[in-house]
Every structure is written in structure tokens, then in C-alpha cells.
């Protein structure tokens, strides 16, 4: 993973926003490498095929919404991951979802075979060292908007 970080840093050396981007790359790298310290590291992904109605519409070339291709599967995976982390929590385990490593892990094909599965995130699992306070709850007005 370090090689990918060094490659990014070398690549952006002449970029005008170099310092800020360098800090971001280092930040996300730090928030990636710790996953190897976790007692259990899981990889989660979706199947490579088309989901639901898209699978049926696609051969007939009816649907042109390319965003639809991954959307249903990504939502399903997100719900499955949520179920997993809530179950882990109920068993006294701590988890952390990570997507930043997808930028740094070399050759993702070796993690999951990409022709069959699309790797979407990693999940660390272990007994938590800390029990931090809950963050302040957002109000409905913060997260809801009528359109
Ligand atoms: C889609 C997604 C990707 C994330 N990727 C990372 C990551 O790469 N590295 C990281 O340290 N935290 C990442 N996080 C944040 C942690 O998984 C976790 O949600 C965050 O630390 C807040 O934890 P808390 O809700 O227990 O406070 C990600 C969260 C989500 C939802």
C-alpha cells in the first residue's frame, strides 16, 4: 500500500494544491493501514453481474441508465454491512468500515476475483479498546429537506 501512496505523492509534486492534497493522501493512508492491525479483516463486495430489472432490460437495450448498474447491489451491500456491524456491536465487538484502502491496495484482483466480485469495502472486527461518547445527535432539520 505504501508504494501506491508514494506514487500519488510523486505524481502530484507539481500540482498547485500540492500541500493540501498531500495532507489528504497522508490522512487517508493513515486511515487505511491500521486495518492490518485488526484481529479480523473482512472484505465485502457485490457480484459482478447486473441486478434485478437491469439484467432483463440490458440485453434488450431498453435501459440506458448506466448508474443503475451498481446502485441496487451497492444499496443491498450497504444494508448487509449495516446488519453485520449492528450484530457485531450486540456481541460486544467493534467494527470499522473502510473504503480508503481501495486507493492504496495493489492489485485488488488478488483480494477478490474482480471478474466475479466487485470489492466495495473492508471491515475490521475486534474487541474495542475504547468506548467513546456518542457524537451529538443531529436534528431532523439537519438531515431532512423537502423538495
Ligand atoms: C462508506 C464508508 C467508508 C469509510 N471508510 C473509512 C476508511 O477508509 N478509513 C477510516 O478510518 N474510516 C472510514 N470510515 C469511517 C468509519 O467506518 C466509521 O464510520 C467512523 O469511524 C465513525 O465511527 P462511529 O460511527 O463509530 O463514530 C468509513 C465509513 C463509511 C460509511
Quick gist of this model?
By secondary structure, the protein is an alpha+beta fold.
Describe the model:
The protein is α+β, with helices and mostly antiparallel strands and 147 residues long. 40% of the residues lie in helices and 16% in strands. A three-stranded antiparallel β-sheet has the order 1-3-2, covered by helices on one side. Residues 31-32, 96-100 line the site of flavin mononucleotide (FMN).
Question: Which features characterize this protein?
Answer:
147 residues; alpha+beta; 3-stranded antiparallel beta sheet; 5 helices; 3 strands; 40% helix; binds flavin mononucleotide
Task: Set down the secondary structure blueprint.
Blueprint: H1 2-11, H2 18-33, E1 40-47, H3 52-57, H4 68-90, E2 94-98, E3 117-126, H5 140-143
Helix pairs in contact: 1-2
The chain binds flavin mononucleotide.
Low-confidence stretches are none
Structural class: alpha+beta
Strand order of the largest sheet: 1-3-2
Largest sheet: 3 strands, antiparallel
State the order of secondary-structure elements, H for helix, E for strand: HHEHHEEH
Mean pLDDT: 90
- % residues in beta strands: 15-25%
Radius of gyration computed on alpha carbons: 19 Å
Ions, cofactors and other bound molecules: flavin mononucleotide
Number of helices: 5
Distance between the termini: 43 Å
Shape: globular
Helix content: 40-55%
Tell how many strands the DSSP assignment holds.
3
Amino acid at each position: 500500500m505504501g508504494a501506491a501512496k508514494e506514487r500519488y505523492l510523486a505524481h502530484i509534486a507539481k500540482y498547485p494544491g500540492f500541500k493540501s492534497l498531500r495532507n489528504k493522501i497522508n490522512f487517508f493512508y493513515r486511515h487505511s493501514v491500521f486495518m492490518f492491525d485488526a484481529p479480523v479483516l473482512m472484505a465485502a463486495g457485490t457480484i459482478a453481474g447486473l441486478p434485478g430489472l437491469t439484467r432483463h432490460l440490458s440485453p434488450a437495450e431498453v435501459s440506458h441508465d448506466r448508474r443503475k448498474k451498481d446502485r441496487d447491489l451497492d444499496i443491498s451491500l450497504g444494508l448487509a454491512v449495516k446488519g453485520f456491524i449492528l450484530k457485531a456491536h450486540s456481541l460486544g465487538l467493534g467494527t470499522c468500515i473502510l473504503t480508503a484502502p481501495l486507493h492504496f491496495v495493489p492489485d485488488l484482483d488478488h483480494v477478490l476475483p474482480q471478474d466475479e466480485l466487485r470489492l466495495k469495502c473492508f471491515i475490521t472486527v475486534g474487541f474495542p479498546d475504547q468506548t467513546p461518547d456518542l457524537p451529538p445527535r443531529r436534528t431532523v432539520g439537519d438531515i431532512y429537506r423537502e423538495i
